[in-house]
Design brief:
Elements lengths: L1 H20 L13 H13 L3 H14 L4 H13 L3 H14 L4 H13 L3 H15 L4 H12 L4
Helix pairs in contact: 2-3, 3-4, 4-5, 4-6, 5-6, 6-7, 6-8, 7-8
């Protein structure tokens, strides 16, 4: 009985060793899926005008990195550029849920307010931007330019 057990162990171990010593498979040409992969593909789709594909790819980036505000913001930008204001606001808001002082999302909301003629809303976002990243950050400067271009009420 001990000989049978020993023989089974030898066969089992030799099989395990053979598997462990087998050469590693060659790297495939399949891209590694990651947040950056989906962001890059989404950007390419947006540039080519395929808004639906870009939106799906940004959603995939969100799945890979739900705690990163970037894919939410980029999806908000996509919706803003395609005239879907409500969806743009929603995704800028989601970016701010992830990172409350995320300047690009604050800028996005302010620019949406300016486009809608809501100077008070844009000024409120501008004030938050000033506290979040200061007067010298590019997002604040772009909102200030928009506010200067809009006539005061």
């Amino acid at each position: 009985m001990d000989r049978i057990l020993a023989a089974v162990l030898v066969v089992a171990c030799s099989g395990s060793l053979a598997w462990a010593q087998a050469p590693a498979p060659a790297p495939s040409d399949t891209p590694v899926l990651s947040e950056q992969y989906f962001l890059d593909r989404a950007g390419e789709s947006a540039k080519s005008g395929d808004v639906d594909a870009a939106a799906q790819l940004f959603q995939s980036a969100i799945i890979y990195a739900p705690l990163d505000p970037v894919p939410y913001h980029r999806l908000g930008q996509l919706y803003a550029q395609s005239g879907q204001r409500e969806l743009a606001q929603q995704y800028f808001g989601l970016a701010l849920n992830v990172e409350p002082a995320y300047a690009p999302a604050l800028e996005g909301l302010a620019l949406l307010d300016l486009a809608a003629g809501n100077r008070a809303g844009a000024e409120a976002q501008h004030n938050i931007l000033l506290r979040a990243c200061g007067a010298t950050c590019p997002e604040t400067a772009r909102v200030e330019q928009g506010l200067k271009a809009m006539p005061a009420n």
